[in-house]
Every structure is written in C-alpha cells, then in structure tokens.
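Example (one chain per record):
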Amino acid sequence: MHCSYSAQLQLGARMCLLLVSVGCVSPAWGIFSDATTSLGISGLFPSDKVAWGDYNLDGFVDFKSGNHLWRNNQGTSFTLAQSFGSNGIWADYDNDGFLDIYTYNTNPPQLHRNNAGNSFNPVAIAPPGMTLNSRGASLADHNGDGLVDIYVGGYETPSVDYHSDIRLRNNGDDSFSYVWFQEPDAEISPGQPRPARGVTSADFDRDGDTDLYVSNYRLEPNGLYINDGAGDFTDVASSRGATGGYGHTIGSSWGDLDNDGYLDLFVSNFSHGSLSQPGGPVLEKYRSCWKLPFSNGRRVELR
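Predicted structure:
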C-alpha cells in the first residue's frame, strides 16, 4: 500500500484523466495511462478543477475543466463544445432534466442554464453582497422544497481580507434569495470570516436533509453545518470533533470508507512550512494520510 491524495479535483497539462485518488490506495487496483492527447483534449491548466456530468443526456459523461466544456463522443474522444465561466459544479436548478452549471471561480460567481444539451447561457442571480472570490461551492436542496439551493464559500483577497460564505435559496422562478451571510468567526484572525477553500454536501446523520462541510484555509477550523430540515444550519464541528485537525484544509470529501453504512469524511490538509504552524512537522511527513471517519454519524476521530 502507498498513500496518495488530491486536495481538489485538478487536471494539469500532463495529468491523465481519472487519476484522482483519495486516501490510501493499492497500486494492484490498476494501472492508468495518460490518454489526454489521444482523446483530443488540450489546453488544460494546473489550476483547473474538473466537474463530470452528462449535460446532453446521451449516456456518456462529459466534463468541464476551467472555462472549457468538453463533450464526450461516445467514449472515443472529446470535443471542445463551449468556453465560458470558470471552475464549476453541476446541478439541475430548474428541474428541466438537464444539468446546469454554477461557476464559482468567476467574479462574481455565475449560474449557467443548460439549453436542452445544446449550449449554456448565464442566468443573473448574483444579489447585493455576493462574495466576489470563491474557491468552492455546493448545490443541494437545503429546505426540502425540491429545488436546488447554493452554498458559496468565500475565499480571500491576499494580504487584505477574507470573504464571507453565503447561502442562496432557489425561488423556482430563475431567481435566488440571499438568506445567510457569514459573520466574522475566525479564530486565528479575529474580526474576519473564515476563508473557505471547498464545500461538500451530504446527509451524514441520515435524518433526511442535506448537511454541509466547509474546508477552511489559513489554519482556521473547518465547519460542519447541521441542517434542521428547514434549511437553517448550525456549525457543530467543534462538538463533533470535525474541525479538521492541523493544517490548511483545501478540500474534503464524503464517502463510506469502511462499509458500515455511515458516511465518513476525508479532509485534505497541507502545511506551508514545518515551523510555521502547530503540527507542521507531522503534516509535512504524513499529510497525505489524514482521514476523519465518523463514528455512527456522530463524532470524528483520527485513526
């Protein structure tokens, strides 16, 4: 066994598709080869994040990388279908059966409607106070009304300030209402909100509603937000042992790692320098193997 990690789903110019791994994996599971060029894919950048989704309902998974939308040609090659926005995440916000995409890494973040699998056009949803710099978002039905809502993680203006997370509620008429704005809650930098680097959703406590986990940067504790079923959230990360350990968290992912029927949480941390933060020497050596499994949906412990 050897350990590997991915902080965010990224493709570099020479990185093979599908080479994204989380946790500890065995090389005996398979050998991957780089088919990027032979599949007709080019112009990828190290900072691009990849979102997979069958946007034209032909049964083959397409993907968006950075501002490029790549259409899957029945598993034989990919064609650049359209260029717009930036890094994004898929969801059918208008319930028409086609995946739309929210590009969180634009200024401001932007929702794009899928025109029956043929093209995408922007939908103006940004309300006053919209965070202008984001590194992650999550689309899910927060209040159980059958409509996809949006949680946008606010990041930072380097050396200036941090940006607040916000929540947007889907009104069902191509508009969204601004329902929550993150107040200053940072522990390392008091007076600032915690800067987010990723957001992921799941019903980890199996009570029928969607909860949220926010990965925070700059050594700030992460947030585990419990949904009350009506779309209001409470951060219980500290009481449930889910603040993320030591390090700058740059991405997290849910999954049942031990097949016990409960969702576990993988938190990806890194260190800028072994002497610049608590636990730095540990992270420098073992940063690829930090795993936070929930115990019966209640608490997180390091194993």
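Caption: Residues 83 and 194 are 32 Å apart (CA to CA).
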